[in-house]
Amino acid sequence: MTQPSREAIQTLVTQCLQEILNQRGTELSAPLTADTPMFGTGGLLDSIGIVTMIVDVEQTIAAEFNATVSLADDRAMSQRNSPYRSISALTDYILGQLSEGA
Fold it and tell me: pLDDT digits over 41-88, tens only?
């Protein structure tokens, strides 16, 4: 399998986040960017939202790239800098998992 590009993963993460926000009726004051906070201080998602996001991203990666990532494992949960803090951070974490599995 060829590893997806950073841009492809970031687009996927952004689309999943946008979909969740749309379902919840969340109005955004600015467009989503790589630095948009997802969870934690200033984040757009609560704990239920982040769980939904994790499941959506894992399923979409499996469907679009025929690859498996685990975004709710102990390693992700115990990191000093949470991979859920921003779109960019989650993108980096996913790319790291994909390169380990390649």
Answer: 899 999 999 999 999 999 999 999 999 999 988 888 777 888 999 999
Which pTM was predicted?
Answer: 0.91
**Rounded CA gap, 2 and 98, in Å?**
10
> Residue 32: is it exposed, middle or buried by C-beta count within 10 angstroms (0-12/13-18/19+)?
middle
- Residues near 79 by Cβ (< 8 Å), separated by ≥ 6? none
d(CA 87, CA 31): 12
* Residue where the block lists tokens 């960017």: 33
Which neighbouring-strand residues pair with 29? none
Which domains, and CATH codes, for the chain?
6-101 (1.10.1200.10)
